[in-house]
């Protein structure tokens, strides 16, 4: 389901994201690379099969998709975002990278989407979310929708902010306050939600902290 079909809540979230990123999209990748830890590890773990399909929820500027497409030249890549402002930046980046034939972008709502509706596919060999769930109202639905979009034998990879429980309290408090300015909220229940989704779908789950709890990483797969 696209963001236009998801009703007022999705439109409201889309408007909020556009307001935040209409200007920030121009410096997003430069500034985020210092604190969105674990993204490149996730990409290295994807390892899609030859001719496979990979989907990113909340693709933003397409930074991750471009890196992954260069790393896995035999796969096709798909991404969607609820922010049209970010998609404008993503389309420019994909075109500059010469990857328009292998990276396909559209607008969509991560909490209610269909692989068939968005891209005409039955499912994806790999699905990933990189620091997006912490920005999505109803993020639990996004995890369930992503798992449901996996092709048989597929895997879903998630990296996002952890709760920083093993780091100094002042650091965690300051980070959470700063993230809240951008409507970002670390998801303490991510591990439990991912486990419940995996059990419902008959899939395995691996969830672990990274960098002393700064980030968390989950893999759901068959």
UniProtKB/TrEMBL annotation:
Biological process terms in GO annotation: methylation
SUPFAM superfamilies to which the protein is assigned, alphabetical: S-adenosyl-L-methionine-dependent methyltransferases
Membrane-crossing segments per the record: none
InterPro entries noted in UniProt: Methyltranfer_dom, SAM-dependent_MTases_sf
Domain Methyltransferase intervals: 51-174
Keyword check for Transferase: yes
Name of the protein in question: S-adenosylmethionine-diacylgycerolhomoserine-N-methyltransferase
Pfam families per record: Methyltransf_31
Keywords: Methyltransferase, Transferase
GO molecular function, one term: methyltransferase activity
């Amino acid at each position: 389901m696209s963001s236009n079909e998801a009703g007022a809540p999705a439109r409201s979230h889309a408007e909020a994201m556009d307001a935040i990123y209409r200007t920030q999209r121009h410096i997003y990748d430069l500034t985020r690379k210092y604190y969105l830890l674990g993204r490149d590890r996730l990409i290295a773990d994807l390892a899609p099969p030859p001719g496979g399909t990979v989907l990113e929820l909340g693709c933003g500027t397409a930074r991750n998709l471009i890196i992954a497409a260069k790393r896995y030249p035999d796969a096709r890549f798909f991404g969607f975002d609820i922010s049209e402002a970010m998609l404008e930046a993503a389309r420019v980046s994909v075109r500059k990278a010469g990857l328009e034939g292998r990276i396909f972008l559209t607008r969509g709502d991560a909490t209610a989407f269909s692989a068939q509706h968005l891209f005409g596919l039955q499912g994806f060999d790999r699905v990933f979310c990189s620091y997006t769930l912490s920005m999505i109202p109803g993020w639990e639905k996004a995890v369930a929708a992503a798992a449901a979009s996996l092709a048989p034998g597929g895997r879903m990879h998630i990296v996002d902010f952890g709760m920083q429980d093993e780091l100094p309290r002042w650091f965690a408090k300051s980070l959470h306050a700063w993230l809240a300015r951008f409507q970002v909220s670390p998801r303490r229940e991510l591990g439990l939600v991912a486990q419940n989704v995996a059990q419902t779908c008959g899939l395995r789950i691996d969830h672990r902290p990274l960098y002393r709890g700064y980030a968390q990483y989950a893999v759901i797969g068959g």
